[in-house]
Amino acid sequence: MQDILEQALSGENLNENELVKLYDLDIFTLGKAADSIRTQKYQKKAFFNLNRHINPSNICADVCKFCAFSAHRKNPNPYEMSLDDILAQATASYNNGAKEVHIVSSHNPNYTYKWYMNVFREVKKALPQIHIKALTAAEVDFLDRKFGKGYKQVLADMLEAGVDSMPGGGAEIFDEGVRAYICKGKVSSTRWLEIHRHWHSLGKMSNATMLFGHVESKVHRINHILRLREAQSPQDKVDSKQGGFNAFIPLLYQRHNNYLDVKEFPSGQEILKTISIARILLSNIPHIKAYWATLGINLAVVAQEFGADDLDGTIEVESIQSAGGAKSKNGFDKDELIFQIKNAGFTPVERDSLYNEIRVYA
């Protein structure tokens, strides 16, 4: 098994069936290797930002079995926000110090194409200094299919309307057999990657996610990670912020209020191994985010010892993961986040959405 680790660290072209053996290594061996890579890149820095999540609606044209956020029998509380609602939330958060608004919604069949673009345009007009991170590739694909624009035109219109970067949602797990079971009808893995590649070609950054801990296998996870590595821009291009994936975010599946009925849940060790393996294999994606909203703050901080270097941010209001049982609904206080990072022996670094350092809390 040690040979597989050494081959992976040296960048040998191993396939998912070979690399899945990394899971058989003990957690300390994997963690030490991942932490060494993380330390070389960032020393003891742990990044976070001041951000606000805004989810305009939970009325969705799709039915994903893992989703607890969209309005359905287990969540019979549909809602739609108006432009004024969104502007009010964004403005209040900006006045409270937020540097980013993260606008991700359901695939709402009632909103018009113009409505989406007008939201971005009006937010940027009202708050020109705020970074707009908006529309997952799944949402872009939905707009393409619903309005016949073509995803390249959707991305061009987003750029013109003021969107600065894209989140990584909608990736779920790339294996099409699993996708057919958990999110049939949603964007394909091939199209998800095409959309991000084109966004990168426009000189813009995005994130990439992987939803794990449900019905996927460990081989599926490795395959997902390898496809992201293959899709990523060369390292020198990423570092110059000229288009590419900023961060990889392993999203832990939340068990409640959905239709998957998963009985076995990954252990803490398996979760940390997944994060370590991602750091080892994704040499050309700069950051690995331990998203506290799905992991919980304690495990997210521990993950900084296992290859992760980021915890996301304050969020303020979190609706998607909390609908599935995560204790993230009210966001996280900045001072408490800084305390948790320091208490774990790391240096908190407030960043902007593109990982430029704003303040180091030494």
Automatic annotation (TrEMBL):
Keyword Transferase among UniProt keywords: yes
- Record-listed [4Fe-4S] cluster binding positions: C60, C64, C67
Protein name (database record):
Aminodeoxyfutalosine synthase
The gene that this protein is the product of is: mqnE
Q: Which residues bind S-adenosyl-L-methionine?
A: F66, E172
First-level EC class: transferase
Entry's family note:
Belongs to the radical SAM superfamily. MqnE family.
The record's keywords, sorted A to Z, are:
4Fe-4S, Iron, Iron-sulfur, Menaquinone biosynthesis, Metal-binding, S-adenosyl-L-methionine, Transferase
Q: Name one GO biological process term.
A: menaquinone biosynthetic process
Write the lineage as a comma-separated list.
Answer: Bacteria, Pseudomonadati, Campylobacterota, Epsilonproteobacteria, Campylobacterales
Function, as annotated, reads: Radical SAM enzyme that catalyzes the addition of the adenosyl radical to the double bond of 3-[(1-carboxyvinyl)oxy]benzoate, leading to aminodeoxyfutalosine (AFL), a key intermediate in the formation of menaquinone (MK, vitamin K2) from chorismate.
Which molecular-function annotation in GO is an example for this chain? Answer: iron ion binding
Pfam families reported in the protein's UniProt record: CofH_C (PF19288), Radical_SAM (PF04055)
Look up and give the organism this protein is from: Helicobacter equorum
Gene3D superfamilies per record:
Aldolase class I
Record HAMAP family: MqnE (MF_00993)
* Keyword Zinc set for record: no
Cofactor field: [4Fe-4S] cluster
PROSITE patterns assigned: RADICAL_SAM
